[in-house]
Amino acid sequence: MCTGKCSRFVAVTLYPLVVISIICNIVLFFPDGDVTYAKDGHITAEVKYMGGLIGGGVMVLLPALYIHLTGKQGCCGNRCGMFLSIAFAAVGVAGALYSLIVAALGLQNGPLCKTVLVWTTPFKELTGDNNYLQNDKLWSLCTEPKNIVQFNLGLFGTLLATSCLQVILCAIQMINGLFGCLCGTCNKEAQIA
């Protein structure tokens, strides 16, 4: 596969992953579909870090746009453009890693929820067999918002998977950019000359 075609493939694949990351992060602000939790500050701390919006969203979208341009014929489809795509892909890796770390912490610490009368993160200190990820009977400790554990698991799990794919794709583009920089992008114009 030509390095230009590979760049286009990577960019086109990154676009839906960026959208998924942004949507997941925004939805995490509204547990149970209610805005009152966000207004009252009863949101899990990892949601406020906005890993999906900033890391997996903006920090991956900008490299995806540039990487897409490097795959097209013209001024950006040259060795210099491929060299710059390495730097942009590195920014994408950094953003995706930020999203991955925030999502992993969100899963490890568990949601902020109301337990009897107090808002707390009841699963933060639990380890081993008492881990809420392995023992779903502990989920009943959270009384409000309704189904917050499943809500956080689904969205943070999606962010984790999405950011893993983003890291892989941006790393592939870094390698592809290196080959494109050293060997050229194999555009049709370059093949004729």
TrEMBL record:
| UniProt KW keywords | Membrane, Transmembrane, Transmembrane helix
Please give the GO cellular component terms listed in this UniProt entry.
membrane
| Lineage per the UniProt record | Eukaryota, Metazoa, Chordata, Craniata, Vertebrata
Q: This chain belongs to which protein, by name?
A: Transmembrane 4 L six family member 21a
Question: Is Lipid metabolism one of the keywords?
Answer: no
Where do transmembrane segments lie in this chain? Answer: 12-30, 50-69, 81-107, 148-172
Does the record bear Membrane in its keywords?
yes
Q: What is its main location?
A: membrane
> Where in the cell?
Membrane
Q: Which InterPro entries match?
A: L6_membrane
Q: How would you describe this protein's topology in the membrane? A: Multi-pass membrane protein
Q: Which family does it belong to?
A: Belongs to the L6 tetraspanin family.
Query: What is the species listed in this Swiss-Prot or TrEMBL entry?
Result: Oreochromis niloticus
The gene it comes from is LOC106096671
- Top-level taxon in the UniProt lineage: Eukaryota
